[in-house]
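ARCHIVE RECORD
Type: protein–small molecule complex
Small molecule: protoporphyrin IX containing FE
Source of inputs: curated submission
Record status: active
Notes field left blank by submitter.
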Amino acid sequence: MTDSLTQRWMRPCTLVYGVLMGLTLITWAVGMLELQGLGVTFLVLGLALLKGHLIGDWFMGLRSVRGFWRWVIVFWLLLVGGLVGAAFWLSV
Amino acid sequence: MQYQSQSVAKLYFVAAIGLFVGQILFGLILGLQYVIGDFLFPAIPFNVARMVHTNLLIVWLLFGFMGAAYYLVPEEAERELFSPGLAKLLFWVFLIAGALTVLGYLLVPYSSLADLTGNDLLPTMGREFLEQPTITKLGIVVVALGFLFNIGMTILSGRKTVVNLVLLIGLVGLAVLFLFSFYNPDNLVNDKYYWWWVVHLWVEGVWELILGSILAFVLIKTTGVDREVIEKWLYVIIAMTLITGIVGTGHHYYWIGTPEYWQWWGSVFSAMEPIPFFMMTVFAFNMVNRRRRNHPNQAAVLWALGTAVMAFLGAGVWGFLHTLAPVNYYTHGSQITAAHGHMAFYGAYVMVVLTIISYAMPMMRGRQAANSNRSQVLEMWSFWLMTVSIVFITLFLTGAGILQVYLQRFSENPMPFMMVQEKISLFYWLREIAGLVFLVGLVLYVASFFVGSKDPEVAVEQAASPTA
Amino acid sequence: MRQLNPLERQGEALRYPPGDLAVWIFILAELSVFAIFFAAYAFTRMQHVALFDQYQATLDRTSALYNTLALITASYFVVRAVAAIRENRAAQSRNWLWAGVGMGLLFLVIKGAEYAHHFAEGVRLSTNTFYMFYLSLTFFHFMHVILGIIVLAVLAVRTGQGHYDAASHTDIESGASYWHMVDLVWLILFPLVYVMH
Ligand code: HEM
Ligand code: HEM
Ligand SMILES: [Fe+2]
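STRUCTURE (tokenized, with ligand):
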């Protein structure tokens, strides 16, 4: 039953879409409120990485892949997050 | 060979090999002049020999590319060449113009050559790689236009394949970018800026498309792997080449008076330039491993794989070595640059031209698909001799370069240029010896065309081979 | 086979992601360029914290918000397009693709207005290091959005012409993956350049 399977995948994607929109608003609000500090910075970075992970897992469909390709986006996010996080941490 | 007109390529290939020999002889002269300063002075000064060495290189590679196009375009388009007569005519025009130019370099002082050829009317001379008199440059443009017309008409009215289209884009790009050699602003910064549009955007841009399509053609023919698979790789390689290579020009804009952001753009984008070369390596080995048959011309397969590896090493690895601005700050214009220049030019463009020659020549000389065993064995020997000597030339120059950079630019008490040159002269001697081995390899290469011509052809083994 | 919908074999995971492997290799290469650029931004900022913070404040976060929402929405539309073609609903798939194109164009318009504003104020690449990064990063991404839009539009046209169905639609999956990559990169770029300080 292709139909139900596709829909079973579509429904969480719609949910993910909602979450992505919500998290974006949070990030924006943090910016507008001029919240400061390392904690805030890491929160914003963490949200961005989480959003990226959702895109990779659901929109790109990597959830249903195994092996190397399952993890490429996660790996990329960790790399970018690690480097950027380190730079911001070191600059306070 | 499926179409009669493909055989015009033979002329071009023969000329290419002849000029190749000349290029190497002048390389050896140069190498000796590095350690024996007055060798052949005043008959052939270093600057003249250098000009002949590099210009012959470019010209024979162009002959090689044109020959490659005349050979593969009809086969891909599944029709005869639009005009074989035009191809022959342009061959002679190009050869004679080239010969006269080199004679001009050798026989009259460069400034007299400039006067003789009316350089003051449209000054374009005097810049590395673009030393040709303006009239020679105009001749090149005419030849290129005629060539593109011929090839273009063949492609447009025949079967359109990805290999042909990529090759055509590469060749058109080559010609268009060459037009910047006519732009010679007085401002040195601007001059250098656009000079790289020819030099860099050639070797790290449009020539890579030519390289990719020739390699793809030979791999399609020798491995029997589906065209669709190979075409897909070609697309990705080309996209990556252009994305990284165009802005990558910035790695030449660090210290010439251009804005500072080039240090970032140049570093980031050119650092990614090895990717397409790496993809090419993976691609070539992948295709050979998935081959449907063992082609009898194993020498051509060896050249193809060699190209993929050496291009990555020379352009990718040795290019990356000095491409980041903080590194280039020290290595700029040192022997590291020369090391990279040699391996990259040899690994990518010399080798791909030798690949297509190796693949096409036997058929143009009346063989079914390949040369005799003896000839192929000799050719493979020449492959290894030339390739290993270029590796050594590169390593010696890299050694020389590291010392040079250290002594002259990095240490607490920097030494003057000429003093450093003396200290590293051992490396130059070693380079010259490696160059002699290269010459031996080249002689064997030429000999391989004359050896075993009476022997039977290597059997065409159609049987599918187990994938390696 | 690769055309198969990953969901049709939920039990046994796939070895390769949806779409063409060559495109995925391309995506990885692109992601590496962006990773280097992001790291370069962050590490350069270490030397110029005050400058970066000062000029970051001149950016228009609300435009960036709209742009982020537009890209996420475009991505979601593209997901729907893939789902539709997997169920053989080509016309719907085509419409979702066009909707994705629309969102992409919206992004270009908003971003274009932002650029116009900055240029009018005399901001250039050489103005200062922050603006150099801001313009370089966002413009490089901008070019990717344009490329992504072209890809989606071509796919929409071809889908409309009936080139794809439930059994064979690797191109759509490839184009979708590429578009998601463009979105993914922006999701990092937005907080990094507009918000984090
Ligand atoms: C087949 C491709 C390539 C060829 C034939 C080639 C050839 C050359 C040559 C001849 C030069 C010296 C130019 C001069 O006279 O000043 C040069 C310079 C340079 N190349 Fe390449 N190159 C290739 C690819 C690359 C790649 C992929 C990179 C980077 C990853 C690179 C990085 C550089 C850099 C940074 C310089 C400037 C060196 C300096 O500052 O002195 N090249 N290349
Ligand atoms: C196929 C083989 C060869 C290729 C592709 C090649 C290519 C080149 C190129 C591109 C340059 C300009 C480099 C630059 O601007 O940095 C050059 C210069 C030079 N080449 Fe070669 N070459 C080859 C063989 C040789 C050999 C065998 C020798 C000598 C043993 C040699 C000696 C030199 C010397 C001495 C220079 C001048 C370097 C300078 O100006 O400091 N080359 N060659
Ligand atoms: Fe370059």
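CURATOR ANNOTATION: Chain A has three helices and no strands.
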